[in-house]
Amino acid sequence: MRTDTAQIVRLEDYRPSDFLIDKVELDVRLDATATRVTATLSLRPNPEGRSDAPLSLDGDELNLKSVTLDGRSLPAEEFEASPQSLVIAQPPQHPFTLTVETEINPTANTKLMGVYRSGGNYCTQCEAEGFRRITYFLDRPDVLAVYTTRIEADLDEAPVLLGNGNRVESGSVEGTNRHYAVWHDPHPKPSYLFALVGGKLGRVGKSFTTMSGRNVEIAVYVEPGKENRADYALDALERSMRWDEQVFGREYDLDVFNIVAVSDFNMGAMENKGLNIFNDKYVLASPETATDMDYAHIEAIIAHEYFHNWSGNRVTCRDWFQLCLKEGLTVFRDQEFSSDERSRPVDRIAEVKTLRARQFLEDSGPLAHPVRPSQYREINNFYTATVYEKGAEIVRMLKTIIGAEDFRRGMDLYFERCDGTAATVEDFLKAFADVTGRDLSHFSRWYEQAGTPRVTVKGHYDQSARIYRLDFTQSTQPTPGQATKEPMVIPIALGLVARDGSTIEATCERIDARGVFILDKASDSLIFTGVASPPVPSLLRGFSAPVKASLDLSNGDLLALLQYDSDAFNRWQAAQTVAMRLLVGASTGAAPSEEEIDALSSALHAFMEQSALQDPAFAALVLSLPSEADVAQEIGANVDPDAIHRARKELRRRIGEVCSDLLQHFHRSLAETGSYSPDAASAGRRALRNASLDLLAAANRDLGERLAREQFDSASNMTDRLASLNVLMTLSGEARETAIARFEDLYRHEPLVLDKWFTLQATIPEDGALDRVRRLMEHPAFSMGNPNRVRSLVGSFAMLNQVQFNRADGAGYDFLASIVLAVDAINPQLAARLLTAFSTWRMMNETRRSHAKKALLSVAEKPNLSRDVSDIVSRALEENKAS
Ligand code: TRP
Ligand code: ZN
Description:
- The protein is of the alpha+beta class.
- It has three domains: about 10-305, Immunoglobulin-like (Sandwich); about 315-550, Neutral Protease, domain 2 (Orthogonal Bundle); about 580-875, Peptidase M1, alanyl aminopeptidase, C-terminal domain (Zincin-like fold).
- Tryptophan binds next to strand 20 and helix 2.
- Tryptophan (TRP) binds near residues 125, 266, 267, 270 and 383.
């Protein structure tokens, strides 16, 4: 296989740009197939760059029409142009103006980067390197310019024209059916934050008064007729703006803030200055079409993109290696927002579930990389769970270590110092080092070292001395390119719990006032004195660090934690750990005894009887066992997905049986009465009710079917309807097919709802699922060009259907390989994402491994792969030299 080493970008090679661009004037004449872009750039040599350097502008599939330098049309011999670049060998050594005219074709743009069309509208996506698909530019995040954009379009085709910043002018073009708008953004920004939109759009909006009393018009634009589905997003935006003022002291800085929903989008959303563009899946919501989880995601992503206005836009990244500087920090901020708006413990559990399912998985496979990578071939492939989720965990640990007050002071200093600049991770850490006087150099290893540390803890109790000792060790597995690992700084929040629930008086001076011990060596011990009875340690409370913990606690100890721990996260964790042990045992030929299973089942019963209704959302999480993928990850090698599936089914059956009385009671008593509200408490009641239905059906097919049918018919919202359909999906034959057909009938004209329908069918864990997916690809609502459709059908099959994707005959792998190749010709970013489903192939058993390798090689051998796909496939196949 060809590895193009010339293409590798390295952090150590960073040097400032030789030229700077202070001002950009863009004139964009929108046209379906021939959009004209005239860019007037105010350039000057960078005093920090090389002198006498050529000017080399980035392009991507551009069609150059003309070049003018300081008003003089440049003759062909004075520059060199290709679709990929525009080079002027001898540019002026003083400030100058360059005007470049290009022509682009939005309709042919299926990569969804640059200017493209979605649902008949024009929109843009420039992060990371899409601006170079609009005009030739220094398309790197450390070149900050003030943009003025004139957008012109047909009045009928695009009555709404939006840009970054404030609208300063608009009107019609005399003698034509065209009109224009001029937008000016006074805040210097990198090109990746540029955006424009033109189209037919409905609007909902309101005024927002900032903390200093300024008025901001905030609005959400959606497909006309769907305005009422944008109310929740608008409300979430308003709450986000208020929260960022109250919690981080951050105020908005333009007169308008617009959000536009589009139906073809490569990711969740994009934080373009003053003009966020969203995948419509993360904007549109109504009780009839969106689930409680959809509402929660909308709220989180609206907040995320808004928070980028400070963490990302006002302070941006020096280079793409610093991506976590904006993404990790902004995820942390959106998580804090959701926790404040909803339930902190419940949200923390949800965060950790995704962290483990996605980031720990990535960190244990061939695509593992540090939160700040040191090299890349394709930056699009580094918008990963590691950069986002683990990046957020690092910020969280920092706050845990230095405390909330110093954290806020450090954030304030960071924003103050770095405002208007393109910063680095070092700048970020320095702000906290400076406000606390701490040396954070050891802590900064979290950015450099890949892999999930494992912390092993053993407890020793000495009754006569009334001493309890905890021995800690830490280690991290090798990852690609990093053979040896150093000890990390790991904040461990902990406490001691008595087996009977009574309080334990004990002292240990190495635990700070917030209950945190810092493990920063390969091994260390804690000594507690005055411990009157043998305690159960509650470790990593609130999941204080992104590590795997091995505890020498018995199932009995853990179930005592489920009952008595004051930390809700660890109550949940205790039940999960016990369930995981049982599932791993049952999947690997070490079947647990009936007593062990019953101990968990009755502990769950007791827990629910005592407290489920006090916090239904939390109870629903306790009832949801580790997923098949979680169990596979825990086993780690020679995995047999079929065995895991059987084990999980059996454990669920048993728990459902033991808890049947309570589950029926919850299902009955929590039935929806009033009108739907997406608030966390109402959602929590629905979650417990639906988790109950799910477990009941696992134990009793007939009862499950009857209740699910009734619920399907009577449901007044998508959460309940989908939950009942989910249960009906577990039944084979008639019942399932009828339900599938009825659902399709009801939502035939709702693409986002049909996505859910695609996903449910793609994840049926039975033979026949693959044929069904193939058949559904012919469905009129399916399209290979629409990322949401592809992800919900093919992506779900590959990522969520453990047994069918990892079929022993290799058909699941071959299927994915063929789809990846087909999608690569349309949308490389999307193809590369799908391909990451192969990141688990090395943990499978021998038969599956060899099939997966063959499928990967079939991709690798194809000529003309995109850089996106070739990067992922070569890393997935690479032997781990480190191990
Ligand atoms: N910066 C965006 C966010 O996390 C995500 C993003 C990066 C993106 N590249 C993209 C979105 C490409 C769409 C397409 O908020
Ligand atoms: Zn982001």
